[in-house]
Amino acid sequence: MTEPAITLRTFFERAHEGQLTAVRCGACGELAIPPKELCPACHAHEWQPVQLNGEGTIASFTVIRVAPRAHAASAPYALAVVKLKEGVSILGRVIDIPLDKLAIGLRVRFRPLVSADQTSVGFGPA
Ligand SMILES: [Zn+2]
Questions:
Q1: 5 C-alpha to center of ligand 1: Å?
Q2: Among the CATH numbers 2.40.50, 3.30.1380, 2.160.20, 1.10.10, which is that of 55-125?
Q3: From ligand 1's centre to the CA of 36, what distance in Å?
Q4: What is residue 90's predicted lDDT score, i.e. its pLDDT?
Q5: 90 vs 71: which has the higher pLDDT
Q6: Per-domain boundaries in the chain
Q7: From the CA of 2, how far away is ligand 1's center (Å)?
Q8: Number of DSSP helices (H) and strands (E) in the chain, helices first
Q9: How many whole angstroms from 80 Cα to the centroid of ligand 1?
C-alpha cells in the first residue's frame, strides 16, 4: 500500500515546522519539490514523501530591488534557486546572508519563512 501523496498544503505545514519534504515518483524515481499533481517525467501519480535534510548550495540567484507591493518593505532581498543535496532544486528567499556575500555554490540551509498567514521557503547560512 502506498502512502497518500503529500499535498502542497502538507508541504507548507511541514515547512512551517522546519522540515522540507519532496516527493519521489514510485514509477520512475523522479524526485520533485514542491509536490506536484503528476510526475513531470512519466506522468504517473505514485508519489511517496521523502524527507530532505535541507542542505544545499546556491545554483543561481537574483536580487530583487523593486519588489511587488506586498514585499516592498523588505526589498532589497534575494531569491535563490538552491540545489539540495538530494539533487532537486527549489526557489527560496535568502535570509540572513548579506547580499554582497551571495555566490553560486554558497552552502545554505532550509529555513521556513513564517509570516502572519503563510509559510514560504527560505534559505539561511548553512
Ligand atoms: Zn515518474
A1: 13
A2: 2.40.50
A3: 11
A4: 96
A5: 90
A6: 8-52, 55-125
A7: 15
A8: 1, 8
A9: 26
